[in-house]
Structures are given as structure tokens and as C-alpha cells.
Amino acid sequence: MIIIDNYIGGSFHKPESGQYLDNVNPAVGEVFARTASSSSKDLEEAVRAATAAFDEWSRKTLAQRSKILHKLADLIDENLEDLARAESQDNGKPVALARRVDIPRAAANFRFFASAIINESSEAHVMEGEAVNYTRRAPLGVVGCISPWNLPLYLFTWKIAPALAAGNCVIAKPSEVTPYTAFLLCQLANEAGFPPGVLNVLHGRGAEIGQLLVDHPEVKAISFTGGTQTGRIIGQAAARQFKKVSLELGGKNPVVIFDDCHFEEAVRTTIESSFTNQGEICLCGSRIFIQEGIYERFKAAFVDRVRALKVGDPSKEVDMGALVSREHMEKVDTYVAGARTEGGKILTGGKRITLMNGFYYEPTVIEGLDEFCQINQEEVFGPVVTLIPFTDESDVVKKANSTPYGLAAVIWTENLKRAHAVAHQIKSGIIWINCWMLRDLRTPFGGMKSSGVGREGGSEALRFFTEPQNICVKL
Ligand code: NAD
Q1: Domain count across the chain
Q2: Which of 44, 170, 383, 472 has the fewest Cβ atoms nearer than 10 Å?
Q3: Are the C-beta atoms of 273 and 267 separated by less than 8 Å?
Q4: How remote is the CA of residue 151 from the centroid of ligand 1, in Å?
């Protein structure tokens, strides 16, 4: 049995309570690890360690911090296979996907911010012969990073890399559902040369240790990725202390397919945007709007491809593995049952797959429901999409904007003028035109409306993790 302990001040610590949570491998439904269930005493210890480390870490030169981050990126690369297997075992995703996307991206996150701090320009404003102002960006101190279960190491590192690069000390709380790769990363952090206390990782339930982290007055900012409901709780708690907060939340992303699209590309990529990682990516498209003229043709080609997707043991060559937990699988199934009750027609899928005692679900396509039905309003976060016809640009913009969410959208058309016009009207933080999940880490990442507050990525992340200070020098 693997024991996942907290990482505080550069070493592993048992939780003060002595309590552990079961960690289940969703591919086989068996407990494979026990995860520390942390309490306020563990948090106090982490805050002490992080506070003590801050002075040394924040005074390091950019080049020194950059070198340590680069070293960690190299170590992730060297351990790619072990990390990919661990991620798959913990989350249920195909190991091939973790090998190709999750783990390389974790290394890229460190490499990117290791370079970004060196290349970031600073502002200066000259007052015509009188004075010069420059902006110093100071790290905040101890910051908290809270991440979800769907892309565990990928999103964990997407937060801690800019926080550390900017000179902060971090207390991170990975999802209790998928804590394994964050635990493995701590061992590599020691090897990379992070001074003790610069990175601390506490495990346990969100409503317990997560909430304590948000509420701790010495934790100066919270960067959170997770569900919209949790984001609301965190936002309210942070506001009471005027704490900086960044919230990356849920989505109900539209995919808009115009009749002049590159048909083959649109079908192929929409399969990916619907079912990659079992549809458990906040950026997956779940409402597919198809222009009337090609609705039947697109539907036939799409459903055909969906039926050919291979679902199964994530350690093998499959297109989809297991959903993350029994609870999540049941939630997905309840949404599909609700769609049936509301009159939706299941074109393919629509039920669980019994396999190895794991939590598998068929890739599911539903039609016949308007944009206001429950399944077209709420985030399912699984392998379920709906097909909805539309007539023209204004019709689809109205439909695409009809949810409380605004994270990502995809537009397929060969007419770029139309693509821009529609992109400007869809209320989403990220719009992909004729592609999906093409990511440049310099770009602002995040959602509008109930999909989030603030942005991550590039300068946005470095700004979040620093406090600007204006220094005015009389000439
Ligand atoms: P979740 O909100 O249940 O949990 C996310 C993290 O918050 C976990 O570490 C959890 O332990 C912690 N947490 C829970 N309650 C807390 C509290 N009261 N205080 C502090 N921390 C708390 O989300 P999840 O189920 O792990 O992840 C799925 C959700 O994340 C989906 O809604 C998905 O859309 C969203 N997500 C968003 C993005 C994005 O970039 N916008 C990316 C990935 C996932």
C-alpha cells in the first residue's frame, strides 16, 4: 500500500491526526494508496516552514530561481514514465494520454515560468524631467494553490510554477481524489534543490484542510481551480480578508459548426474535444451546435466515429479509460437519465460499462433537447455531448451564450470574417477557431461569467502572484 504523506519544510510528515483517506484506482475500483487527512496543526507547521523560507527564496536572483525550476522540469522529463503510470492509476486516464500530455505539460509549466521571469519586462514612467517612476513587483509571501482531480499534475504545476518563480513560498493542496503525482513531485523538488519550506504540500479533504488554507491569515493569496460551487465558497471566504484570489471554474462549452467548415477536420477534432480524458477537461466542448444544412451529415459521421472509440483498461492502448470515481460515474449517469426524461434521444452510449470493477462509461451523444434543458445548462464533466441544430450566426450566438458559464468555445468555419464576428460575440474567455486545446502558455487563460475570476498564464500569472509597488524618484 502506498502511503501519501504531507510534505512540509523539505521532508515528509505524517498527519497530526494520524488519519488517512482511501485512494482508489478507478480502473479496477480498488484502494491502492492511503492519503494523509490533514488538520489545522499540519497547516500551522506548513505556514511556519513556508514563512521561514520566504526571505531566502525571495532574495534569490531570478537566474538562481530559474535554474532550480529548470532542474525540476528536467527531473520530470527523466521520470516521465513513472509519473504517467501514477497519474493513470490515480485518475483512470489512459497512460498514453498522461505520457503525451499531462506529464510533458507539467515539465513545460516549470520551464515556461523559469524563462518567463527572466524575460518579463518591467514598467517605467518618466515625468518630463521631474521624476521617474518604476514598478517593482514583489512576491506576496506564502500563497495557497488548490487544484482539481482531472489533470492532476498538469494543473497543480500550472499554479505552483508561477507562484514559485515569482519568489513566493507555496502551500499546495492537490485534490484528495488524485494526490499521487503531487506527492511524487515533492521527492523531485528536493533533488532539484528547492530550499526546505519553499514548497509544501498538504493532503486531505477540500472542505477541511482546503478551507483552513483559504482562511489562514498568513496565506496571502489563493489560486484555485475546481468547481463553480467551491469557487463561490472560496471567493466569499477570501473576500472577508481582502485576500487575492484567482478562480478557474467550470464550463459548459459550445462547439459551433458552420456548414462551410472543413468537414473532416471538424468531425475529427470534435471527437477529441468531446471525449479526450473521458470528457473530464474543463475545456471539453459539451454542446455541439451544428448548422441545419449539414446537421444530418455531421451527426452520422460523428456518431459513427464515437461508436468506434475504444473504452477500457487505461494501461492499454485505448481512447478512453475510467471515470475518476464511482460517485462521479453515478453523477454522469444521473445526468443522462435526466436527459432521457426531458425527451432527449440517445444516439449512442448512455450507460455504464461493466469492466474490471472499474468506473467506465460509454461515450454518449444525445439529440433532441433545446439549449435550456438541464443537460445543456449544467456541467456534466464526463463523456456526454448533445447535438443542437442552428440556423444562422445570431441564432447560434444566442444559444451558445445561454448558460451561466463562459470558459471556452470552438468555432468551425472556413470564413474567417464570420469566425471573428462570432468569436467577438460569444462570452467565453478562450475561443478556438478551427482547432481545440492549442495552447500558447503566454496567453491569458480563464473564464468569464460563472467560469472564473482572473486569468492564469504568462504575465497574468506572474502579476497575480506579485504585488506592484510604484517607486517614484525625483530627478
Ligand atoms: P472541486 O471544486 O470539488 O475541488 C477542487 C479542489 O478544491 C480540490 O482540491 C478540493 O479538495 C478543494 N476544495 C473543495 N472544497 C473546498 C473548500 N471549501 N475550500 C478549499 N478547497 C476546497 O472540483 P473537482 O471536482 O476536483 O474538479 C472538477 C471541477 O473543476 C469541474 O467543475 C471543472 O470544470 C473544474 N475545472 C476547471 C478548470 C479551469 O481551468 N477553469 C480546470 C480543470 C477543472
Answers
A1: 2
A2: 472
A3: no
A4: 11
Counting from 1 in the atom list of ligand 1, the atom nearest the Cα of 231 is 2
E strands present in 226-337: 244-248, 253-257, 285-291
285 with 386, same domain? yes
pLDDT 10s digits, 226-282: 999 999 999 999 999 999 999 999 999 999 999 999 999 999 999 999 999 999 999
> Which of 160, 175, 177, 278 has most ligand 1 atoms within 8 Å of CB, for mutation?
175
Sequence-distant (≥ 6) Cβ neighbours of residue 372 within 8 angstroms = 402
Report helix, strand and coil shares of the chain as percent, to nearest 5.
Answer: 40, 25, 35
Q: Which atom of ligand 1 is nearest to the CA of 251?
A: 34
DSSP string, 223-244: EEES-HHHHHHHHHHHHHTT-E
Please report the pLDDT score of residue 84 as a whole number: 98
Q: Is residue 363 part of a domain?
A: yes
Q: Ligand 1 center to residue 312 CA distance, Å?
A: 26
445 CA: nearest ligand 1 atom: 40
Domain membership of residue 159 (yes or no) is yes
- CA dist 472 and 271 (Å) reads 55
Q: Residue 44's domain is classified under what CATH number?
A: 3.40.605.10
Does 343 lie in the same domain as 194?
no
pTM of the model: 0.97
pLDDT of residue 227: 97
Task: Give the structural domain span for 308.
Answer: 253-440
Residue 456 lies in a domain: yes
Residue (of 399, 150, 78, 140) closest to 254 by Cα position: 399
In three-state secondary structure terms, 437 is coil
Residue 390, strand partner residues: 291
Ligand 1 centroid – CA 443 distance (Å): 22
User: What is the tens place of the pLDDT at every residue in 178-220?
Assistant: 999 999 999 999 999 999 999 999 999 999 999 999 999 999 9
Tell me if 235 CB under 6 Å of ligand 1: no
Nearest residue CA, atom 36 of ligand 1?
226
Active site residues: 248, 282
